[in-house]
Design a protein that fits this description.
By secondary structure, this protein is mainly alpha-helical. The chain has 9 helices and 2 strands; from the N terminus they run ααααααααββα. α5 crosses α6.
Length: about 210
């Protein structure tokens, strides 16, 4: 793959954005995933993180860039486009990704049960988390920067918290998780895999924008 691919250009352009939920150390003011944009395609440990956490960070960085690169030039009309009565807009799906990550933060970093959200997070993210009719009514009229700033804000908080934790935390198991015993690694890999799932949906909708 040519190193001049738009993926690298985009992540370089996204190096600084919205304020994080938790302030980042000044030594980590690089791109949103602390990954060298020239080495975005190298998955593995990252400086500032324990080995397994760093590898997860690199996977999440790669997937996030894959999500954002195709949508960065979309207009408000295109972000709001609804293909049919059962579809979600691209804008709603981007907000949904931020919501999913925020709720996994609360569960894994704050040790809260799923659904036990602070009021401000519930009000900000629940309609996007649920998608469907409610999201179709409420999520519209926003520029791409609205969504990318939100995604970056949430991601920066994830990374700030990851930097405080080690591989033992990542591998620790939640015996009471809904789909069975699950460790934090699986929960956060699911956040990454979840973006991959919506990546396909976003591309499907983008090709059908009229």
């Amino acid at each position: 793959m040519n190193s001049s691919h738009p993926r690298r250009k985009f992540i370089k352009q996204s190096m600084f954005g919205a304020g994080a939920l938790v302030a980042l150390p000044l030594s980590q003011t690089t791109n949103p995933a602390f990954v060298d944009p020239d080495n975005l395609n190298i998955i593995g440990p990252q400086k500032g993180f324990s080995p397994h956490v760093g590898a997860l960070v690199s996977m999440m960085a790669w997937m996030r860039n894959t999500i954002l690169n195709p949508v960065q030039d979309l207009s408000v009309k295109e972000l709001d486009y609804i293909h049919d009565e059962n579809s979600n807009s691209i804008g709603a799906m981007l907000w949904h990704l931020a919501a999913t990550e925020r709720f996994y933060q609360i569960n894994t970093f704050d040790n809260k049960k799923w659904g036990d959200w602070p009021k401000e997070d519930d009000e900000r993210f629940s309609h996007a988390m649920n998608l469907g009719r409610g999201a179709r009514k409420k999520i519209k009229g926003n520029k791409i920067s609205f969504y990318t700033d939100m995604l970056e804000e949430v991601r920066n908080n994830t990374l700030s918290e990851f930097a405080k934790r080690d591989d033992e935390w990542l591998l620790s198991v939640d015996e009471n998780w809904g789909w069975g015993p699950t460790n934090n690694y699986c929960k956060w890999f699911h956040v990454c895999e979840h973006e991959s799932n919506h990546n396909g949906q976003i591309k499907y909708i983008k090709k059908r924008i009229k």
